Amino acid sequence: MEIISQHLIGYENHLENLSNNLIIKSSSNSFIFYGNKGIGKNTFTHCLINKIFSDKFNESKSNLLYANSHPNFRYISKIIDEKSNKLNSNIKIDQIRKIESFIYQSSLNKLPKFIIIDSADDLNISSSNSLLKLLEEPKNNSYFILIVHQLFNIMPTIRSRCIKFKFSHPSLENFDKIIRQSFPDIKEKDISLLYDLSNGSPGLAIQLYSNNIKDLLDNLLIIFNEKNNLSKEIINFSEIVGIYTNDQFKLFLSILKLILINILKVNLGINIKKYFLSNLSDTIHSISKNINNKSILTILDYLKLNENDLYIFNLDKKIFSINIFNGISK
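The structure assignment produced for this chain is given below.
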């Protein structure tokens, strides 16, 4: 389980309103908290449950909650496969089945029980159907909170049984505060760049900064300006990203798509400068002089057709990257 911050920034009003109404006035035992990945939904959910326990039931054991060892709390996410020693691509049905025994156990001090699914986007068909059965027969004093990045990833029958709350990305001021909790000495210009690259998602921004995003951008700039199929730079860069984890590779592709889509806009005569806080728009304008829209669409089509298979079948990321940049010269 990832380390969850106990310091909430930017959603204080939401916290107060939901902690007062989630149990007392709610007409449902199931909730969806949705919004872009990395904007703080998980942090908010933990803070919310901790506040309900402490304020409503005078039960203060936040150390157990954040360690996922509180007897009235379960946190469900993708786990490491024992055979392959790799992170599973989905939340498995066995993980959901274990929840049933948990919700029917006696409750400590008559406290409500909370189950977080993070993220529900990672449920496969089997685990989704298993969860649906639990939602269809809710047990009193047990509450499901599904953290969701994209609503369309969730089965309509599950969505229909949940009260939904949308989370927006934080303001630049709050984004700055969150990032500086992890990187106190970060420069202002880097904050702006991270805000642009992550679409205001602090979680993604922290990952980007931790993975030397500047080096990645510099290498992409060289490759795009060269426009040379199978150059030394492309081979070297593909070897670097070829050993990325799936999550790191997804970050790389998200940046690549951001750049390509905005080059497309520039080539269509759209002024993108107003959408960026950093000088990233200047970099994109510079690259756009060397890449036409046909090349961009070739790459985007390749990603659309093959990206899912990359993770499902554990394809070679180095070859995948070379194929991406092969589209530049077309």
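Interim note for the steering committee: The first strand starts at residue 30 and ends at 34. The mean pLDDT is 90.
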